[in-house]
Amino acid sequence: MMYCQECVSLLGDYVDGLLSEERRRELEDHLSYCAPCVTFVRTYKATSRVARQHLARSMPEEMGARLHAFLEDKISKG
Amino acid sequence: METVPAASQPTDRELVERSRLGDRHAFTTLVERHQRQIYRLALRMMGNESDAEEILQEAFLNAYQKLPDFRGDAAFSSWIYRIAANFALMRLRRRRRTPELPAATSEEAAELTLGLRFNIEGGYVDPPKSDWSLRADDALQNQQLGRALETAVANLPDDYRVVFLLKDVDGLSNEEIGSALGLSVPAVKSRLHRARLVLREKLGEYFAA
Fold first, then answer.
1. Are residues B133 and B192 in the same domain?
2. In this structure, are residues A17 and B170 in contact, taking their beta carbons and an 8 Å threshold?
3. In this structure, which of B155, B158, B172, B202 has its CB flanked by the most CB atoms within 10 Å?
């Protein structure tokens, strides 16, 4: 029988799909009757989701041009 | 992160071989193929665009100069990741010596208050009650939430923040992160989990306010 503390400690592997089949079943069995852990899992997953939406960054295009010019300059000078 | 070129495109290995023989165009193609991932790595490690750009430039120049030493059995992507990560780590170590920019250490991170306490039977002392996950999805365009999150991420210790951003925002695997940062996969997973717990707690406080 799994307890909440163990459930929380396994959440990283659980949401990343890295738990063994047996552990995953144990954890999901725990979730089937533990409302606080269901809340915990949902908010844990939402944390990553929100971060992805808000913090994704792309390389500015002009930076690629500056990188190209930098390398051309340095390499041509040997 | 292995970049898979289109069928008609040369592989990284072919481009490395051609670059070693002096084909500058081949090296340019390698740079263009990997520059975005290296930029994101550098940005996550340094925390600002200016330093990230310098790391980007240093890393590719260093890669070009060390091409004769590059072992063809390794992936070019892993190799350039490692070079960039090393430059970033060196710069961060130098920065930590300056008194005005103290950085939290892993030991300090271990002391992070997660707001989580369990009783002797492994149950919550204070069970989570508020499920704010749907509100978070509704608030994805909310700039205030974005700012709260950025502050919380910025307050994480460096080595936790980098792992979290590379994994949850940039989508690298634990193995790729470990390889770039010189960490074991269990260490990556541990830092990632703790970072998520801290940020979950902070977002909970935001939605409770």
1. yes
2. no
3. B172
Q: How far is CA B124 from CA B42, B119, B127, B131, B194, in A?
A: 39, 6, 5, 16, 17
| Domain that includes residue B49, residue range | 12-96
B101 located within any domain: no
Q: With an 8 Å Cβ cutoff, is A54 touching chain B?
A: yes
Q: How many domains does chain B have?
A: 2
Interface test with B, best of A57, A62, A74, A77 (most B CBs within 10 A): A57
- Chain A contact for B70, CB < 8 A? no
Q: Domain of A37?
A: 4-77
Q: Is the separation of the CB atoms in B45 and B92 below 8 Å?
A: yes
Residue B111 lies in a domain: yes
Residue B128 and residue B78 in one domain: no
Q: What is the pLDDT of residues A15-67, one digit of tens each?
A: 999 999 999 999 999 999 999 999 999 999 999 999 998 888 889 999 999 99
User: Is B49 exposed, middle or buried (CB count within 10 Å of its CB: 0-12, 13-18, 19+)?
Assistant: middle
The CATH number assigned to the domain holding B176 equals: 1.10.10.10
The number of domains in chain A is 1
Helix (H, G, I), strand (E, B) or coil at B118: strand
Alpha-carbon gap: A3 to the closest alpha carbon of chain B (Å): 5
Calculate the alpha carbon distances from B26 to B36, B151, B187 in Å: 17, 41, 36
